[in-house]
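Feature request, filed as a ticket because there's no other form

It would be nice if the structure record came with a short human-readable summary line next to the tokens. Right now we just get the raw output. Example of a typical job, pasted below so the devs can see what we mean:
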Amino acid sequence: MLLPSIFGERLFDDFMDFAPRGKVENQLMRTDVKDAGDHFELMMEMPGFKKEDVKAQLKDGVLNISAATSTSNDQQDENGRYIRRERFSGSCSRSFYVGENVTQEDIRAKFEDGILKISVPKIEEKPQIEENKYIAIEG
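Raw output as currently delivered:
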């Protein structure tokens, strides 16, 4: 059965779509980086995530932030028939180079009201002093 064209191509999608339109990737993990003198402050928006959904790891001078979540909204009428079933599962990640000299203990992180705040100290790379190595000459 074909629906009249006045309903458009996505009648039921538009009817059941309660969320605002837009790309999800533009709404997740938006990050502001601030130079605070002796350290950098990262403020990352993570709406819909809980603290236990978020992981932070430092490896080889790269700070990796990842998050994963899953939700289910099942609604049934009094006869047990589904009126609506919606499920969401998603993950996202971001990486930042913070330097080889920064250690895990140097970084501070706090998750509050859907915002992850990370403080990364500025650690100057110590220049390697080139040692003159001589070959012993016998004789």
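Something like this underneath would help us a lot:
The mean pLDDT is 77.
The chain has one helix and seven strands.
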